[in-house]
Write a structure and sequence with these properties.
two-stranded parallel sheet; 8 strands; globular; 4-stranded mixed beta sheet; about 50% helix; alpha/beta; 14 helices
Length: about 425
């Protein structure tokens, strides 16, 4: 596990007002600790942004040369990876048009420049598309013509399409190299309900989609308002599975800071998000995380709209637990279970959710949907899945063992807040 101070030093560089003195601690890390830190940077999605911020602020000399070289190699390889994915992105969009399917791209290539300065600073793993439920079958045919298939096609939930597996994924893979295996997710809504959470979202996002172009690739993107709403919901949904990529939060913080003075823009976001209290609480949680970790300014319109939904318990968790939760190694920390009741007031549904987190089923610990090309691949994938499950189970057990101590800390934090009148 990487040194906590090393992680905090990196976050301090990525804040709105970067701070560099803490980087001196990286020089004291040994070779294994540096490898572990690089692995965390890769998993969190922060490696490329960290390298860019160091160059941007002329601070590359403040980290060890081997770390800087490793980061620069990642940046260079990701440029090639991005170009390769753009070619595939064009191929998919061409196929959709040939099959008469109107789709809007979600996340990924639509996030520059509002959420990230340059797409080369993002590590993208797959493609996401939004389609009308009536067009799911035609979209599946468009995917099939490009060599993709799915194990389960749905007109009401996410459908995962993959290309035939030619290489068995492993932890030793270089994630910045061009993809050997493609994945594209087809959505019929910007939010898929779970057994414990149902969020009210607009269902006319396709009608508000806007034409876009990236390196001569023509496609449709969500409006800014729907894009921001989607990013917030995407991060929150993953947080309820225990872990987020910190780069997602950094992108939201970047967007908030970039447009912080455009009150009319944020008012339109609020209108699209609606007045449901759960949505406001989700925003309060995500905006609170972004502010605490990256010191971004939350626009006053968003703050006024969402902050009344932030309960004393959630505010206490954000103040005392959010940082350690956010920088935890994959597969994450269980300490966000403490405020589950803030989002799931129904006791039966909450118990269902808690059970899914504390006793995850096999389907939640797989390496994901893959398409195999032969029987040998089936065997190799099964072996890889077992290794993956064993590793994740070990990490989960460690988190479970820490839970009683974390719960005691939680109880003390709540008592302190109430005793000192911080709950209002």
């Amino acid at each position: 596990m990487p040194d906590r101070n090393a992680k905090l030093a990196i976050l301090s560089v990525l804040r709105h007002a970067p701070d560099f003195p803490a980087l001196a601690s990286l020089s004291s890390l040994n070779a294994n600790e540096r490898r572990s830190l690089l692995h965390w940077l890769d998993q969190s999605g922060l490696a490329l942004s960290f390298a860019h911020r160091l160059r941007q602020c002329h601070a590359t000399s403040q980290i060890p040369e081997d770390l800087l070289d490793a980061l620069q190699q990642r940046v260079a390889k990701n440029v090639t990876r991005l170009c390769d994915m753009l070619v595939e992105f064009r191929r998919l969009n061409d196929s959709f048009r040939q099959h008469g399917v109107f789709v809007a791209t979600l996340k990924g290539f639509t996030l520059a420049p509002d959420f990230c300065e340059n797409l080369c600073l993002r590590h993208q793993t797959d493609f996401d598309f939004l389609v009308d439920p009536k067009s799911v079958l035609a979209a599946a045919q468009a995917f099939a013509s490009c060599g993709y298939s799915t194990a389960a096609l749905s007109d009401s939930a996410e459908s995962c399409f993959t290309t035939p597996l030619r290489h068995i994924p492993s932890e030793q893979d270089d994630i910045y190299l061009p993809q050997r295996h493609r994945q594209a997710d087809l959505h019929t809504s910007i939010w898929e309900d779970t057994p414990w959470l149902k969020v009210h979202v607009p269902h006319d996002c396709l009608q508000h989609a806007e034409s876009a172009e990236l390196h001569s690739v023509h496609f449709y993107s969500l409006s800014f308002e729907d894009k921001f709403l989607t990013q917030v919901l995407h991060l929150f949904r993953h947080s309820f599975r225990s872990w987020i990529r910190l780069s997602w939060l950094l992108e939201i913080a970047t967007c908030l800071q970039l447009h912080c003075h455009d009150e009319h823009l944020w008012q339109r976001v609020i209108e699209r998000a609606g007045e449901d209290r759960l949505t406001k609480r989700i925003f309060s949680f995500v905006l609170g995380l972004a502010h605490r970790l990256f010191d971004c300014r939350v626009p006053s319109a968003l703050q006024s709209w969402s902050s009344p939904a932030c309960s004393p318990a959630m505010r206490t968790w954000l103040d005392h637990f959010s940082l350690d939760w956010a920088i935890a190694d994959w597969p994450g920390s269980l300490n966000n279970l403490f405020f589950a009741a803030e989002f799931i007031p129904d006791r039966r549904r909450r118990l269902l959710y808690l059970r899914s987190r504390l006793l995850p089923r096999g389907g939640q610990t797989s390496i994901g949907a893959v398409a195999t090309s032969d029987s040998a691949s089936v065997w190799n994938v099964s072996a890889a899945r077992l290794r993956y499950t064993a590793g994740r189970s070990a990490a989960h057990l460690k988190s479970l063992l820490c839970l009683p101590w974390q719960h005691l800390r939680w109880w003390k934090a709540l008592m302190f807040a109430r005793t000192n009148g911080l709950e209002s």
